[in-house]
Amino acid sequence: MWKKSKRLLLLFLLSVVLFGCSNNESSNNDQGSETDSESNGESEVLDIAVFEGAYGSDYWTAVADKFMEDNPEIQINIESNPKIGDLIRPKIVAGNPPDLIYLNAADPSGVTQGLIDEKGIEEITDLFDREVPGEDVTIKEKLIDGALKSKFMAPYGDGKVYLAPYNYNLMGLWYNKKLFENEGLSIPETWDEFFSYTDVGEENDRALFTYQGIHPGYLEEIIVPAIYDRGGQKSLDQFLNYDPEFWKTDVALDVLSIFEQISSTENGLMEGTIALNHTQSQTSFMQGDAMFIPNGNWFETEMEDAPTEDPFEFGFMGVPSFESGNTLTAQTSIEQIYIPKNSDNKELAKDFLAYLYTDESIILNGEKAHGAMAVNGAVELVEDYITTSSYNAYKQAEEGEIYPVSSSFAALPSGSNININDEVYKPAVEVLSGDSTAQEWADKLYEIYLQIQEDMED
């Protein structure tokens, strides 16, 4: 009797594994998969781990359902959670990772960055030479310019791609579009023009600029594009790769001096900014207390219930240039998907990845996640599912009015206790409050970068 019960228990447990019956997993199209298993003996199983953040997980369920509908011999199991990195770490350590992972390198769990550092991600350069399933175009041709060259996708600087682009965001400056229309104003294309809007602000009872106060990391959205505009990719690479000599250049000082000038300009910084959190400063901007604020294209959705001045409409612009005639720049970040090197189903994972770039998948992503994939023409496909301000921001990038600048700091040496974002951006608070200078900020960062270089040599 015990042997029979034990055999039945083992059969039950096997069915749990095959069909992904878990409280933490979404097993899609189970009935169809069971029928297919009965007729063919077994299904090929793809296990996917998904970070459940602002984009949710509904898209992944929907696209997996569609993929299985087209490929009934395949079963996809999805595990999604806001703390997915912590949940999958034991599996990765045990050598049994998911077959495909959506989790950014900046995730606090450190899982993705750890896999990058340990060369634990499968190279997928060849994937992008494939044609998009059912379409007469390669994946590479369909992606936005520069997507595969960024450190988000090619982290080792050797031209080989290890992570696949998913949704992307644009970060720049925001203004009240209605105010600009009513006053007959055009967006400032240079920093000189930007500072001339102090007079416009005074006439309309508002400061020139505010930012997210106790979160000075938002100033990255000005600093990164400004470095690229002033010094090109060479200067940006110095900045991102911890070259101490960058902080001795005119490029660095010119960029940091933007904030010194805001501080020294009467009515330049909105009163009280430094003590506010992000929602408080953003609400103040929307109520007409400042002309400009940095943020990403999630701004409208994030603040959809906040009060505004009347009339008000979100307007997005690139970061002003140091020279007239230059294309305005904006920072971009791209979400990442990848295949662990120890995956059991690499080819199937690649097939599914390729499927994500179909128009049908892109539309599903817009409908379910309200995001735009890093694909040319995606914004038109998802226009009905994203905010007007996001659509306008993406269109500026697609039409060449804004040049998207990708950035990601190089990995710090193992064991480093330096928080590079805090070290780079927090000193802006002292400069904006008038307690420090751009030169002192640069001098401090020169010493920080020297320390990083010494740590790298140890």
From TrEMBL:
Gene3D superfamilies in alphabetical order: Periplasmic binding protein-like II
PROSITE patterns, per the entry: PROKAR_LIPOPROTEIN (PS51257)
Pfam families noted in UniProt: SBP_bac_1
The keyword Signal is annotated on this UniProt entry: yes
Key words, A-Z: Signal
Signal peptide coordinates: 1-20
UniProt key word Signal: yes
Alphabetical list of PANTHER family matching this protein: ARABINOSE-BINDING PROTEIN-RELATED, DIACETYLCHITOBIOSE BINDING PROTEIN DASA
Entry-linked NCBIfam families: bind_CPR_0540
Protein name: Carbohydrate ABC transporter substrate-binding protein
Organism: Gracilibacillus salitolerans
